[in-house]
Amino acid sequence: MLKRYRKDLIIVGTDEAGRGCLAGPVTAAAVILPKNFANKLLNDSKLTSLKDRNTLKEVIEQKATSFAVAHVDMAEIDEINILNASILAMHRAIDQLHTTPQHIIVDGNRFKPFGNIPYECIIKGDEKYLSIAAASILAKTYRDAVMEEMHEEFPMYNWKKNKGYPTVEHRAAIKQFGTTKYHRQSFKLLPDQLKLEL
Question: Which GO terms describe its molecular function (predicted)?
Fold first, then answer.
């Protein structure tokens, strides 16, 4: 059961999507929920169906006190690395909020200070706290929409299905067609050939 982090502070939850992908941006969302927010469907985006995610996206956007979504593109990821890019995306999302939070809760174990606002990193936070789960839903739905648009340009990689993750099919397409402007060049796009240990 997801819970509220604290009731006495304005809490923003933040999370990212697309960190482990070979193509496309890393996308983060930041969400401040009202104190009385409750929704039985809300959970970590990885544990919700596509239909529920789309329903939740609308609910969160309508009910949130404030929310924002930010992308960091492939060139920036290659330049500053994926961990820094993930944190930068979260910072950009928080920076766009109309309400200034008093405390930040972050999914995962790494973050950098955002101004003077205290923060806490929470492993599996998207399975524990409402605002992080809400951020995970927005980050995933917004990023999926970007990947579906990119798919129209390069359908041979089937991004509308794999969303840029390193599936067997995606790696096979990279092997056959090479890379695109949307691929992260700093990632190991193809695994080394398997060697037989004799």
Answer: RNA-DNA hybrid ribonuclease activity
Q: What is the pLDDT of residues 57-86, one digit of tens each?
A: 999 999 999 999 999 999 999 999 999 999
Residue 76 in 3-state DSSP?
Answer: helix
Query: What are the structure tokens assigned to 104, written together?
Result: 């930040």
d(CA 53, CA 132): 14
Structural domains for the chain: 11-177 (3.30.420.10)
Q: What are the DSSP calls for 130-159, one per residue?
A: HHHHHHHHHHHHHHHHHHHHHHHH-GGG-H
Q: What is the pLDDT of residues 92-105, one digit of tens each?
A: 999 999 999 999 99
The residue among 152, 136, 22, 47 whose CA lies nearest residue 89 is 136
Strands 26-32 and 11-17: antiparallel
d(CA 100, CA 168) in angstroms, rounded, equals 43
pLDDT digit string (tens) for 137-189? Answer: 999 999 999 999 999 999 999 999 999 999 999 999 999 999 999 999 988 88
Q: Which structure tokens are listed for 108?
A: 């995962």
